[in-house]
Amino acid sequence: MKLTIKVSYRTPAAETVTDEITTSIATIAAWERKFKRRISDLQAGIGVDDIMFMAWHRLNALKKEPRDYDAWLESVESFDVLEVAQTNPTEATP
Questions:
Q1: Could you tell me which of 20, 40, 39, 19 has the C-alpha nearest to residue 29?
Q2: Whole-number mean pLDDT of the chain?
Q3: What is the 3-state secondary structure (H, E, C) of 11-78?
Q4: pLDDT at position 51
């Protein structure tokens, strides 16, 4: 599963930044380790904390966000999930 997330947050200098990120395999693995759940568990529903952790993890990996997760989360103003894609989609039959 890949998520494309658009998130707006305040920097430590109080500037609003909007980033659009797409999760990676490393992001999903980090989420599984932190929340002690499997990606298949998201079929039952995905929470805000799940989405925000994935967005933060990807921003952190890209060196766009140095703060720890909780500090960054306090700065988030809004977010949208733009796309949810399966990692191994199958082609539709004709």
A1: 39
A2: 88
A3: CCCCCEEEEEEECCHHHHHHHHHHHCCCHHHHHHCCCHHHHHHHHHHHHHHCCCCCCCHHHHHHHEEE
A4: 94
If phi > 0 it is left, if psi is from -120 to 50 it is alpha, else beta; for residue 84 that is beta
- d(Cα 67, Cα 70) in Å, to the nearest integer? 8
pTM given for the model = 0.82
Compute the chain's Rg from CA coordinates: 14
What residue type is assigned to position 17 of the chain? V
Average the pLDDT over 13-38 and give the result: 93
Residue 17: beta bridge partners?
9
pLDDT band at 92 (very low <50, low <70, confident <90, very high): low
Provide the residue type at 1 as one letter: M
